[in-house]
Design a protein that fits this description.
By secondary structure, the chain is an alpha/beta fold. 30% of the residues lie in helices and 25% in strands. It is built from 15 helices and 26 strands.
């Protein structure tokens, strides 16, 4: 055991002067590193007073705000395990997380306090506090009576710093246990790999209940002693207006498609920016090319997940290849194996992506059997399918559960989607497998047309017949205005599979 707080000690060591801004607000105003220490110190005192002991969980379901960020820091300093929850979760979903994680404190939005208190009481959650977007609520009122100075609770590298629940699109959600070293090692690697320094200003427009916005964006800024413009949500016009004051943006693909809709997106408008990062969902090669043409800058795409943080990244210097997620990050091993036999596969062979490194989580909360089943010779089985090309770039083909098996043949949706997306008149597509009487699963395409395009199902079929083997061809093509997505921009193929599950029911 160490005599210091492993994660927060690193944040402290990286801090510039306490009067240096940490957070700028888009509408004006700022908070400094000193403000962060003071508020998190008061909150940490409050947590201890409310009965929090080392390893206890603090669950937080509030809107993004500067104070919510301080709550994260306070939880770490108090030796607690930080548990952020998506604000979109319903009471029924919240009930599961509270039952599973058994937090000592639950922090919620003031407008749902009555319902949440009733639920918390029924589940024996000891303490409920409220926090609004403007920093008001019972939490800050109670914390105001405590001193700013706080002696950080000692926590070692292997102690838990956070639990993040996976989306749970197949089966119940699992809590990924992330240690202080998991979080710290990944943030240090990214800070160096992406060249973050005290001179950087990040446009932070991501939610902070997710790995990307909290453990990547925020932790990297703290370890660099840098600054961020803390936007409640992403607005393309606002983001564009902030670029002359910023150096970097971390986003999801939707950020970049919306920026491309802005006529003001030019080389001049982005001249002060040095880095655009995309992740959490696949970035279309078309978006990558269009952004480069308009700005002269290549988006840096990377690959990560809840259980591991970031695993790979396109290079800072060098060729950022569209359609790839780059190379394994320093200290992280990535390999491709046969999903059935576990045998290591050669370059360009598609298989299961497995990763190993200090970033890989400690396991699933209270699920030892599930944890054991997800590891293979010390490597974590990500559940993603991909390949490593001869140049060493990692390509994501799709999720293992998204693999379509039709007539005994394996079809990788990403391959078919790539061909459809290349057709004139197509904005994007999603390929799924749904039950088929004869083939087991029927390859099915759901397509979003570009504005004004009149592309037909027959035209898609005709174009693909020249590009794909017959068994890979979609048996049906459906057109929609937009694809269903979760809060991080990932296409919800489970929703599509449910929507189209009966289309081949009577097909022979």
């Amino acid at each position: 055991m160490t005599d210091m707080n492993h994660l927060f000690a690193a944040f402290r060591a990286a801090m510039p002067s306490l009067d240096t801004p940490l957070v700028y607000h888009p509408g004006g105003g700022e908070e400094t590193y000193g403000d962060a220490l003071a508020l998190s110190g008061r909150l940490a005192h409050l947590f201890i007073a409310r009965g929090v002991k080392p390893g206890d969980r603090i669950a937080v379901q509030v809107e993004k705000s500067w104070t919510a960020l301080a709550v994260y820091l306070a939880a770490v300093r108090a030796g607690a395990v930080y548990l952020p929850l998506n604000t979109a979760y319903t009471l029924a979903e919240l009930s599961y997380f509270l039952s599973d994680a058994e937090p000592t404190i639950l922090i919620c939005r003031p407008e749902v306090e009555a319902d949440v208190r009733a639920l918390a009481s029924s589940l024996n959650v000891p303490c409920v506090e409220t926090l609004g977007t403007n920093g008001t609520g019972s939490l800050t009122v109670a914390a105001a009576g405590f001193p700013e100075d706080f002696t950080d609770v000692a926590r070692g590298p292997d102690d838990l710093g956070g639990i993040l629940y996976t989306s749970g699109t197949t089966g119940r959600a699992k809590g990924a246990m992330l240690s202080h070293e998991n979080l710290l090692s990944n943030a240090r690697t990214l800070k160096d790999y992406w060249r973050f320094t005290r001179d950087d200003v990040l446009i932070h427009a991501l939610p902070i209940f997710h790995t990307h916005g909290l453990f990547v964006a925020t932790n990297v800024i703290l370890l660099a002693g840098a600054r961020m413009i803390f936007c409640p949500k992403f607005d393309a016009k606002e983001a564009l207006s902030l670029m002359p004051k910023a150096t970097s943006l971390m986003g999801v693909p939707t950020f970049y498609t919306r920026l491309l809709d802005q006529p003001g997106l030019t080389r001049e408008a982005t001249a002060h920016m040095r880095l655009f990062v995309s992740g959490s969902a696949p970035l279309l090669a078309e978006t990558h090319r269009a952004f480069s043409e308009r700005t002269g800058q290549a988006i840096l795409e990377r690959y990560g997940m809840t259980e591991t943080g970031m695993n790979t990244s396109n290079p800072y210097d060098g060729d950022r290849r569209a359609g790839t997620v780059g190379f394994p990050l320093p200290g992280i091993d990535v390999r491709i194996t046969d999903p059935e036999t576990g045998k290591l596969l050669a370059a360009d062979e598609i298989g299961s992506i497995e990763v190993k490194g200090p970033n890989v989580f400690r396991g699933y909360w209270r699920m030892p059997e599930k944890t054991a089943s997800e590891f293979h010779d010390g490597f974590f089985i990500t559940g993603d399918l991909g390949k490593i090309d001869p140049d060493g770039y990692v390509h994501i083909v799709g999720r293992g559960k998204d693999l379509v098996i039709t007539g005994g043949f394996n079809v990788y949706p990403k391959e078919v989607e790539g061909e459809i997306d290349a057709l004139p008149g197509v904005m994007e597509s999603a390929v799924i497998g749904v039950p088929h009487k004869d083939f087991g699963e029927g390859v099915t395409a759901v397509v979003v047309r570009t504005k004004g395009a009149a592309l037909t199902e027959a035209e898609v079929h005709a174009a693909l017949e020249k590009r794909l083997a017959r068994f890979k061809l979609p048996k049906r093509v459906f057109f929609v205005d937009e694809l269903p997505r979760n809060t991080m921009g990932k296409v919800q193929k489970n929703v599509l599979r449910e929507t189209y599950k009966d289309i081949y029911r009577s097909v022979a």
